Amino acid sequence: MAEERMDAAANVDSENSSSDDVRVNPEDRAAFSAAETVALALVDEDRSAYGGPMARRELSFEVLETHRYGDDIRVRIGYRPTSGFSGRSGEEWILINPDGEVRTRELISRPKDSQPWVLIALASISVIAALVLVPMIISRSNPTGDPLYRAGRTLWMRVSPPDVVSELQYGGRTISGDAVNFRIAGPGNGWDLAVVHVSLFNRTSQQVSVNIDEAAAILIDVDGTEFSPINVVNRSEGISGPIDPRYRYPDFIGLWRSIIIRGTESVSGMLIFEVPPDFEADRFTWKASDTIQIGFRD
Hints:
By secondary structure, this protein is an alpha+beta fold.
């Protein structure tokens, strides 16, 4: 049944793609094709973003969606184990700039194997108990006791204490597969960049729409001053030569766009804030689609 649903979805995607192709002018079609080539080359060569056993498995990739995002092109890639897997593919976004270079890479979801129908039937028996227990569970902090893991109404979230740097540099790929490097520089005047790792988990809803922009979160210092995240896409600029070891930020994934997090799925990445030299973090508040606050001094 899972394979039938996936085949049906693939047919719908194929029909939609064909319809879209008719409306895409030749220039855009060539640019889309080039961007898709870059995105596929990147995910096939660098699988570290998938983590653990998934990064070591034989994977297959497909382009699910391609569209313009300002002057850039966004490519949505589906990935899944080549064999021994019958569930839903994982997805990620690759943002390609007009020069064919990778700006950002954002993991949307991981592959999810189909659940056995017997277990689903058994789970349905406890639905009444779940309606009572779920609100109780959500009202608590993480049962593992992690103080940086909190629940909102629909989302769970974990954040890291801010990593304060003067600049960060990370790597990407060109159309030809050559390595290209990027930097996000600090604002100057003695101010720095505070990098916060954010993981969002949809534990309770069928799907949650999240718009990650300047209003998505605030970082608050001990004096009560609030700081909003910066646009990591606009602030990323290409650099010539190798990455400076002083500013190297491996596995950088900037969070910046509208996403949909389906039930039991998660999304992880980094938000960046400009902060003064005497900055000392007090708490972090997530505001997009839910309100969740985590204190760093508890």
